[in-house]
Amino acid sequence: MDYFASAPRGTWGTWDGRTARVPYGTHHARRLGSAESACGAPAMDWELFWDVGFAPALEASCRPCARAILPTR
Ligand SMILES: [Zn+2]
Q1: Per-residue pLDDT reduced to its tens digit, 1-26
Q2: What residues flank ion ligand 1 with Cβ within 5 A?
Q3: What is the pLDDT of residues 49-69, one digit of tens each?
Q4: Which of 3, 17, 42, 60 has the highest count of CB atoms within 10 angstroms of its CB?
Q5: From edge to edge, which strands make up the β-sheet containing 47-53?
Q6: Annotated domain spans of the chain
Q7: Rounded to 5 degrees, what are φ and ψ at 63?
């Protein structure tokens, strides 16, 4: 299942060369319809960024979220 980037606040920025809503600050991972981020934060009223997939390797990505969604190794 795909994770989208989610954050308490968003801003307009560039993503993949297009203007898009992007997270302001840390990117958390959240599934569509989930009330929590992957790291367990209550994310019900956070913005979900449809154009921005959660990228664990990204500098701005939440480490606990990245750990939570990566396969164990
Ligand atoms: Zn997180």
Answers
A1: 589 999 999 999 999 999 999 999 99
A2: 28, 37, 39, 62, 65
A3: 999 999 999 999 999 999 999
A4: 3
A5: 28-30, 4-7, 47-53
A6: 4-69
A7: -65, -50
